[in-house]
Automatic annotation (TrEMBL):
Annotated PANTHER family: TRANSCRIPTIONAL REGULATOR, MARR FAMILY
UniProt keyword terms in alphabetical order: DNA-binding, Transcription, Transcription regulation
UniProt protein name: Transcriptional regulator, HxlR family
Entry keyword Transcription regulation: yes
Length: 81
């Protein structure tokens, strides 16, 4: 849920920027979740042909809809910790 919310709060993010928002999550976990969300059609991955290579992640329309529906739940969870 956090990953969708973090990406949705920005137009797009690079992997290192996502990691900064999730300091307690391992690199492999974040990578695995991004792959799963991409396969599910929630996240798009854009790779640019640059040196050094640049990859950015953004929410798809379906991902944005999921984020919109998750926001009230995340707000509630934050208030009731």
């Amino acid at each position: 849920m956090q990953l969708v919310s973090i990406i949705g709060a920005h137009d797009s993010l690079r992997f290192a920027e996502i990691e900064e928002h999730l300091p307690t999550a391992s690199t492999s976990t974040i990578s695995k979740r991004l792959d799963e969300f991409e396969e599910a059609g929630l996240v798009s991955r854009t790779q640019y042909d640059e040196i050094p290579p640049r990859v950015e992640y953004a929410l798809t329309a379906d991902g944005d809809e999921v984020r919109t529906r998750l926001e009230p739940l995340l707000e509630w969870a934050t208030e009731n910790r």
